[in-house]
Structure formats: structure tokens, C-alpha cells
Amino acid sequence: SKLTNLGHLEMTWRSRVHFHPLLVRILHKSRLKYYGKPGKKMDMPYQAYFEVADGSGMMSMVLWNSLCPKWYHSMKVGTVLLLAKYAIKSSYPFKTHPTPGDSQMKRFATIEICLNVRDPPTEISIIPEEMVKPEWGLPEVKYRFMTRSELDDLPHNHSCDVIGLVTFVGRAERARKREHSEDFWLYRWAHAIDGTSDQPFILELFATSQPDVFERIHPMTYLVCTQMRVMTENPSRTVYLTTSNESQIFIKGWHKGQPYTKDAKVKNFIQWMESQSEADQIKKTVIGGYYPFPRPPDSFLKY
């Protein structure tokens, strides 16, 4: 069938009701959002954002309601989609935006693709990677991996990806989303090392839409965290990383086939790990317990 592209959609969407099919690759994926409220009768009030791209640029795509439980876990970063009978509308102005791995890629920010179960009923097809043809011109997924030695030079709120060997993982803790709210965020602290510094990555890992991974983080696993935000804790200037709305977390058992396995810094980390003694590293690992961060001063006088 005749295809269109994202650039052409942005120029013509106001003058059309029906759109030609789209062939795009998923570059970023948000956590699953539940927007149900008491008194509102909706069967499945779910929503998830994706950033998808073709040869012309990148655009947001929104998966709505009952399509979320059906498709969310199948739509991974790197997945190629063929979309038909989708809707186009003006972008929601207050959504978060991931930092693209390719800074040269054009972003179409005025409109977004909506995938609905009706009005119109979207047709979604996943194209297996082995069937994807180079002539389609779909961009590869690119990352912004940073080593621990580079981290201290990054500005506050900078976005990056990291890989490391877990040396500490704390218990799951809860924090109120808002004061006096009955909704909580679930998170845990972790440390990971990559051999480039004496200091570990300090990671504040919120439970994203990957509960199976979040619950199984343990010492001695290779941990990959994408779209992490750099946070500088004043006045100590301690740097740590926290998850964003588009963060993805991977541990052993989930790495196979992920696009980041081709990244040079990931390969360098694997080489460093192969030179290490597993018995020596195990002696340095810790699990569980309360992790006070930022650490309190040594004495009451300093406090």
C-alpha cells in the first residue's frame, strides 16, 4: 500500500481525514499512565507515550485505553511498526520529552499520532527485525551512554544512559506523590560500578512499568538504565541519577536483542568485566537495609 511519512503528515494533517499507513521505529517509550478517577466510568483508563521516527524525523505517538494492555509490552524500543487507520491531533503541551540520542534528528512537536480502539479503530502490525529493509530508511536507536568518570562534569538535569555492575541494592521504599496524598511512588537505591572511577553510580530507581525487572535487581547483575537524569545534591555537590518518565531498566536475562548491545561504551564495559575476578567483586556487594541519602554530616556541629 502507499505509505506516508511524518514530515508529510505535519504539513497536510489539517486538510485530511484519512491518512496513508505509516512505517516507523520506536526510539523512546514512557511508563504506563493510569488516569482513572472515582465516578468516571471507563473500562481501561490507560495511556502511554512513545517517540517514533522515520527518515523524515521524530514524532510522539499515544497508545490509548484498552490498546495498552494488548500492545504496551510488545512495543519495545527498537520495534518497527506499520500503522493504519490512526488519528492525528495537536500535541498535549505539558507532556515530558526524552532527550534524543541523535541530536540532529528533526522533531515534529506540534502534532501526535493517536492509536485508539475506535474512531477510528487503529490497525497495528509489528514488523520482525529480520524483515526490515535498509531502503525503508528507518533510523537506528542511538544512546547517550556516560561512564562514571564523565558523570561529575555533567550539568544538573542532563539526560544520559548508564551501564554498570550492581554492588548495592536497597529495599523498596515509598514516597508520597503529593503532600497528604494517598498515592505513592515506589523506589529503591542502587550502586553500580563500571571501572572508570573509584566512585559508583548512585541510582534512584523508581518503579517504572517494568515490575518484573524492578523486583529482581540484585548485586552482581549488569544493570542498564536509559534516559536517567543527573541530580546534584547541594551543598555536598554529590551527584546521583534518577529515573525519568521515559527511563527503561534492564538486568541479566533482559539484555538479549536490545539495541544498546551494539554501543561502544557497552562493549568496553563488558570487556572490563571479563578482566575482573567475580570472587573479589562479590566481597564488595551489599543488599537491603535503609539507605539514608543524602548522607547526614559526621557530627551535630556540622549539621
TrEMBL record:
<dbReference type="InterPro" id="IPR040893">
    <property type="entry name" value="RADX"/>
</dbReference>
<dbReference type="GO" id="GO:0003697">
    <property type="term" value="F:single-stranded DNA binding"/>
</dbReference>
<protein>
    <submittedName>
        <fullName>RADX protein</fullName>
    </submittedName>
</protein>
<dbReference type="Pfam" id="PF17659">
    <property type="entry name" value="RADX"/>
</dbReference>
<dbReference type="InterPro" id="IPR012340">
    <property type="entry name" value="NA-bd_OB-fold"/>
</dbReference>
